[in-house]
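Notes from the 1:1 (GR / supervisor)

We went over the backlog. Supervisor wanted to see one worked example end to end before approving the batch request, so GR pasted a single chain during the call. The sequence is below; no edits were made to it. Supervisor asked that the structure be written out right there so they could see what the output format looks like.
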Amino acid sequence: MSEAGAARPLALLRARPWHVAVAAFASGLALAEADRGLVLGVAGGAAALLTSCRAARLAAIAAGLILVGAAIAHARLAAIDAPAERVRDGDYVRVRATLLTPPRPGRFGDSTEVRVRGGPLDGARLLARAPRWQPFPTADVGAELSLNGGLDRLRPGDEFDAYLRRRGVAGELEVDGSSATGRRRGGLAGVLDGMRRRADRAVAAGLSHRDAALLRGMVLGEDEQIDEATRDDWRASGLAHLLAVSGQNVMLLAALALPLLGLAGAGLTTRLVVLAGLIAIYVPLAGAGPSLQRAGVMGLAGIAAMAASRPASRWYALLLAAAATLVWNPRAWADPGWQLSFAAVAGILALGVPLQRLLRNAVEQLAPPSRPGGASRVGRTVARAMADGLALTLSATLATAPLLAHHFGYVSLAGLPANLLALPAVAPAMWLGMLKTAVAQLPAPLDGLATPLGGVARVPLAYLDGLAERAADAPAGQLSPGLHSTPAVVGAYAALAAAGGALRSRGDRAHARLTDLSAAWHAAPRARRRALTAAAATALLCALAVWAAPPKPPDRLTIRFLDVGQGDATLIQHPDGTAVLFDGGPPEAGVTRLLRKAGVRRLALVVATHQSRDHHGGLAAVIERFPVDALLDGGDGTRDPTFRAMLHVARERGVRRIPGVAGTDLSLARGDLRIRVLSPPPRPPGPPPDDPNPRAIVAIVSCRGFDLMLSADAESDALLPLDLPDVDAIKVPHHGSADPGLPQALARLEPELAAIEVGKNNDYGHPAPSTLKALADAHVPTFRTDRDGTITVTPSQGKLQVETER
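Structure output shown during the call:
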C-alpha cells in the first residue's frame, strides 16, 4: 500500500473519535471472558496504533475504554451466571415459574424457557423439558406454572449448553409434572403479555394453520408451529431469515409508519418520537429476540441522532448497537445470529450503498425520460425499487456467506435468486401482519378487521411458501467452501473488502461507461429497443421457469425406499402419475421435500401403517402439502395425540379415510396397481394394545407382475400366521431388528431384493447382525438407507434395476 493509501484510514480514525471510542468500549465488552494478558495486549495495541496516528489523547481514552468495557462485562457476566451456581445436578425441586417462551415441540417432548419465582432458585432462567406424553398445560407467555422435576447443570464444552449460557439460561429442568396456577405476571411485562396474546390471535385470524404459523414467524418471531419440512425448505432456499424477526422488521415498520404519520400532518420530531415508541413496543411484542434487540437499539440510535438535527451515522449506529447488546449480554458476540446480523448490516453499508448508487445511476441513464403521471415515471420508480432491493440483497448475501459457510458448512446457491424473487412479497406480508397486530389492540368490533386482512395476506404468503419449495429443490444446490477456521473466514472477508474497494474506486469509470451506453441506447430506433427489451425479459422468464420447475414424475413403475433417517417411508410411483406413500418417517425428516424431488404432484393413497412417531410423524405435513385422495388408517384406535392430529388434518382436507384391516383390497391406476392388506384383523373390543407394532399394516403392492411386501414394524410373529406369497422385493420389518423367525419368513417369501429403512448411527443397534446374517444366508441382495441413502428400484423386463443415492 502506498504511503498516501495508508494515511487515509489513519486520518479517518483521527476524524472519528466517537466511533473509535464506542468501538474500543465494545471491544472491551467482547473480551469479558478473555484472560487478563489478552485484554491488556488489545488495549496496548489500540493505544500504539492511535499514537502512531498522532492521536495520543484518543489513544489513552481508547485503551481506557477497552479496560473499562472488559471490567463492566466481567461484572455483568458474574450477575448473569450467579443463578447457575444455585443449580445442582440431580436435585429434585418443586417451583413456581413464569413461562418466557412458547413451548417448542421436539423429538422427545416440549421445551420452553421459564423464570423461577421464589425459593432458592428465585430469578433463575431455566430450560424446562416436558415429555411428549405430558406436555405443558399452557403455551401463553407470562403464565405461571407449578413445575416439579430434576435439575441438570450446564456442561462445559457442550455446544448446546454454550448456546443456553449465551441466552442467560442457568440450567435445565427435566419436568415430571406441571400444572397452571392460574396466575400471571403483572406490571409492564403483564401488559405486553396481553398485547402479545391479542396479536397472536389476530395474526392467525383468517389464515390456515400453516399460513398462520408462517406469518407468526415473520411478524412475531414465533416459529414453534412451523413444521420441520417447511423449516427445511426455507433454510435450503436461503429464506429462513424471513421466519425470524430482525432488523428487516424494524425497517419495514418505519417504512410503514413514517408516511402515515406524514399524511396525518405530524412534524419531524413528532414522527420520530412516535416511531421510537412503536419500536419500543414492537420489540418486546415480537419476542425481543437477540436479533430484534439489536435492530431496536440501532433504530433508536438513528432516531436520536435525527432528532438532534445531526445526520445519522450508519456506522456509528452499528457500533452503538454492538455496545448496547454487549452490555446487556457480553456473550452475545459468540452467537452466530449476532454475527450474521452485524455482518449483514456492515455488508449493506460497505457494499450495498455504493452498489445502490451504481444501479440507480444505471436506471437513470437507461430509463426513458419520465413524464408527470406517465407510465414511464411509474416504470422508473419500480426500476429504482428493484435496484435498491438488488443492491441490499446482494450485499447482505455476500457479507453473510463466509459466516454461514463457517457455522453451518454450506452456502445456499439458490439463496440469492430466491431472495431477489421474494422481494415483491416480503414487505406486503409483513405489513399486513403488523396491521393485524395493530388492529388486535383496538376494542371490539374493530379488532375483527384482522380476519379480512388475513384473506389478503394469503396471497404473498402462498407466493413465498411456493418460492421456498421451488428454490429448495432447484438444481443450484449448495456450496461447501470449507471455511472451517477463523483465518479462512478472515481471508474470505479480506477478499470481499478488496472487491468492495474495487467497486468504489471504479465508480467513476463505470459512470462514464454507463453514460456512453445510455447515449447509444437512446440513439437506437425505438422498435429495436423494444425488441431487445422483450427478448431480454423473455429469456429471463424462461431461465426462471427452468430454474424453478419441479421435477417430472418417472415414466415407469418406480419404488423408492426414502432415506428419512430412523424411520419408514416408501414411495410407489406408477407410470401414469399415480403415487402411493407408505408412512412418512419422523417429522424432522422432511419427507415432503423427498416427495417433490421424486416428482410427486398428488398422492392417490397415503398409508399410515401404525402409530409410531418414526412412521406417522411426517404424514401430517404430507397431507397439508399435497393433494391426497385417500388415507389407509392403521392407527388401530390409538389415542396418541400426534396420530389423532394427523387424522384431524386429513378430515379438514376432505381426505377419504379407509380402515386398514385385513381383506382390504384397493385398485389404483385404472386397476394396474393393486394393494392387498394381509394384516391386521379387525381389533376386538377394548382399549388399543400397548405395543402397536404387531398390528401394523402388512400389505402386498402388485403391478404388472411385480410384487412388493411392506410390513412396517410387524415382525415374524405377526407375519408367519399369514398366507405369505412369493414376492420380488421386501422392506425388512422393523428397521432390521433382531427377529428369530425372519429366516422362516424369507424362505416362504423368496424375495429377490431386500431394503432396510434405518437411520445412521441409531441408538437401537439396527440392523441387527442376526438379521443381516439371515438375509445373507438366504442370498437376498440387501440395501440400507443408512449406508446407501434413498434406494430406487425399477422393475424392467423381469429384472430389478437398483439405484442408490450414495
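Supervisor's comment: The chain is about 50% helix and 15% strand.
Batch request approved.
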